[in-house]
Design goal:
It is built from four helices and three strands; from the N terminus they run αβααββα. The protein is of the alpha+beta class. It has a single domain, classed as Multidrug-efflux Transporter Regulator, Chain: A, Domain 2, CATH 1.10.1660. The chain has a three-stranded antiparallel sheet. β2 and β3 form a beta hairpin. The longest helix has 10 residues.
Length: about 70
């Protein structure tokens, strides 16, 4: 069991839809958070045109814990 499993994330990478569901916001809000000057949301680890970006669960948890 990883620390991500303990924090309610059971997979190593999350899609924008996963993140929107986790934070109960729109997908667009996730992308807005990337542009924040103070404590921006972590950047996706995998970005491909036409394919959903993927965020590392560990990066997301670090961001949550820094709030």
């Amino acid at each position: 069991m990883t620390s991500a499993d303990v924090m309610g994330i059971s997979k190593p990478f999350l899609t924008v839809a996963d993140l929107a569901a986790r934070y109960q916001c729109s997908k667009r809000t996730i992308y807005r958070w990337l542009r924040l000057e103070e404590k921006p949301f972590p950047k996706p680890r995998i970005e491909q045109a036409g394919i959903s970006s993927l965020w590392a669960a560990s990066d997301v948890l670090k961001w949550e814990n820094s709030k």
